[in-house]
């Protein structure tokens, strides 16, 4: 297949790279060779087996049912929207359109229409990320990982990243903070078990134990975002500070028990024990809702 080259898009801006549909420069035809197959806008038909996936693709999950539906459509109508690739040695590397590429493979296509672009690694990452964000195809964790990758790979500050992807600094920071949540919570966000609203509430809780407790409450009771925000406020109202609640004369075992109880109930717990081993456990609450939460934990 004849290769095509075009002037680089460097210096034109990311929007130009994504939207530029100018014709590519064509080499002079060789008399013995057949003319290459071209579509409108001088888009080349590329051998589908010569296309490598984008190593900077932020999407990790693809809906198989949706892929099958798109594949059936491609079998009947063909691929309407070309993918975008760059030359990579003797192969081509996908810049955007992985869902279309996968569906085309399922449809059994041997060739696929593609724009051929010049792009460096940073542009590859930016184009793949922005295409998916604009289409809202990424889950919150994929967005967060993509933001972190752009910061690491492109040496960007959060405010600079926000300018690149059309998000304000606070939004970018909130996504990045998701990556500090415990892995089990990140998995729930990725799998759609809890929403971004739930996640934004959880990142305002400092201790991982409290985050995990609230996360389990969301899963078990189907708590709304508003309920979670109220729970977070009540929990944050009483800070658990194990180093300041250790009563004098209490053994290490009791101190650890006190700390464990504080984590379980997500509130300050005071353990009083006398020399004879008798004592009391104090569990404060800040509202009726907080009291009901504690009673439920006690199976009351």
TrEMBL record:
Coiled coil: none annotated. This is ParB/RepB/Spo0J family partition protein. Belongs to the ParB family. Transmembrane segments: none annotated. Signal peptide: none annotated. Residues 44-133 form the ParB-like N-terminal domain. The keyword DNA-binding applies. It holds the Pfam family ParB_C. It comes from Pedobacter albus.
